[in-house]
Amino acid sequence: MGNRLTKIYTRTGDDGSTGLGDGARVAKESLRVEAYGTVDETNSFIGVLLAMPTLPAAIKTCLTDVQHDLFDLGGELCIPGHRMVTAAYVDRLEATLDGFNEGLPPLKDFILPGGGPAAAACHVARTVCRRAERRVWSLARVEAVAPDALKYLNRLSDLLFVLARVLARHELGTEVIWRRSRG
Fold first, then answer.
1. Long-range contacts: 24-31, Cβ < 8 Å, 24+?
2. Cβ distance 41 to 74 under 8 Å?
3. How far apart are CA 152 and CA 80, in angstroms?
4. pLDDT in single tens digits along all 183 residues of the chain
5. Fold of 27-172
6. Rg (CA), the chain
7. Quick one: 83 exposed, middle or buried, by C-beta within 10 A (0-12, 13-18, 19+)?
8. How far is residue 88's CA from residue 31's CA, in Å, rounded to a whole number?
9. Angle, CA 76 vertex, CA 95 and CA 125 arms, to 5°
10. Torsion of CA 34, 37, 41, 43, to 10 degrees
11. Which of 57, 97, 114, 141 would you label with 14, given CA atoms 20 to 30 Å apart?
12. How buried is 105 (Cβ within 10 angstroms: 0-12 exposed, 13-18 middle, 19+ buried)?
């Protein structure tokens, strides 16, 4: 079990620094803090999605598992050199993605982000996940980041796209297809 907080505020960050999991102090805007902070943001948006009342049970289970994975990933990024996310995480995500995608018609056109409330929330989680992936790649350009962490975020954004399609069909019976402007 990790440290138990008896007091939430410490005042140690009042100087613009924050502590990593290994005890090192870094600037709050460091690439590492941006990376794990945006992973946390992704997890929070998935929490918003999980709060939707009409979410199918299989999607709830899937997203709850993802939240645990993202917590592991955030921990990994918070402790330089620490590894938690393995190829098994990526493989499990790919199998889940394939399972949800199996029942969907092939995409022939772009779809608009939106749909019902759950589908729209899923699209927001997807775009925040893409941002997290970009932030982790920025970190990986200057510090060691495990390849499986990067692969996981890439697959997760794909999964969230597929789940948004499933949810749009669940909520509205269809998806909104992008129409090219006719000028």
1. 24/80, 31/135, 31/138, 31/139, 31/142, 31/143
2. no
3. 18
4. 466 667 676 776 666 766 767 777 866 778 999 999 999 999 999 999 999 998 999 999 999 999 999 999 999 999 999 999 999 999 999 999 999 999 999 988 898 898 899 999 999 999 999 999 999 999 999 999 999 999 999 999 999 999 999 999 998 888 888 888 766
5. Hypothetical Protein Ta1238; Chain: A; (1.20.1200)
6. 18
7. exposed
8. 26
9. 55
10. 130
11. 141
12. exposed
Q: Distances from the Cα of 173 to the Cαs of 93, 146, 169, 179, in angstroms?
A: 25, 40, 4, 19
Calculate the CA dihedral of residues 12, 18, 23, 25 and round it to 10 degrees.
Answer: -100
Encoded amino acid at 181, one letter: S
Question: Which pair of tokens denotes residue 10?
Answer: 């410490």
What tokens appear for 115 in the block?
């749909």
Strand partners, 17: 27
Residue type present at position 138: S
Q: Which of 126, 40, 124, 24 is nearest to 79 (CA)?
A: 24
Residue 126 C-alpha from the chain's centroid: 7
- Residue 62: count other Cβ atoms within 10 Å of its Cβ: 19
